Amino acid sequence: MIIMEKAVKEARELKGFMPRSIEYAGQINEDFAEGIAGFYKAIWSEREGGLSMKYKHLIVFAIACSTNNIQSAVKILARLHKFGATRTEINDAMMLAAWTGGIQHFTDFSEAVLKEMDRLGY
């Protein structure tokens, strides 16, 4: 239980919140929760020469937009704001999402994303 608690704590610190997948996995099996927490740590830890947190979030933002995952895209904007992404960087990610996901997805996610950007002061 202590190993799982450590892994969960580290994942929470990296993401800034408790990922629901870890919480749900813990209700199923301690080893499963520890594995998912380790997955979060492996992805979201900053490594020398690796992507910064800002660029990792720009990438997942673009993926969320291109797959029409509007709720996730809007949620990621708060993380982008925290890590200092500029409006121009976010706009570029949105345009890349339109390129890879199609213009219909762009139309679908743009309204919610632009509204949240305004709320965050971009």
Short synopsis of the structure:
The chain has 7 helices and no strands.
Can you give a write-up of this model?
- The mean pLDDT is 89.
- It contains seven helices and no strands.
- The protein starts with a helix and ends with a helix.
- It has two domains: 1-44, no CATH class; 51-118.
- With 122 residues, it is mostly helical.
Task: Provide the fold topology.
Layout: H1 2-15, H2 20-28, H3 30-44, H4 53-66, H5 70-82, H6 87-101, H7 103-120
Helix content: over 70%
Beta content: under 5%
Domain count: the total is 2
Distance between the termini: 43 Å
Order of helices and strands: HHHHHHH
- Largest sheet properties: none
Count of alpha and pi helical runs? 7
Ranges where pLDDT stays below 50 over 5 or more residues in a row are none
Derived from helix and strand composition plus strand pairing, the structural class reads mainly alpha
Number of β-strand runs: 0
Determine the mean pLDDT.
Answer: 89
Q: Using the alpha-carbon principal axes, give the shape.
A: globular
What is Rg?
A: 16 Å
Key traits:
0% strand; mainly alpha; 4-carboxymuconolactone decarboxylase activity
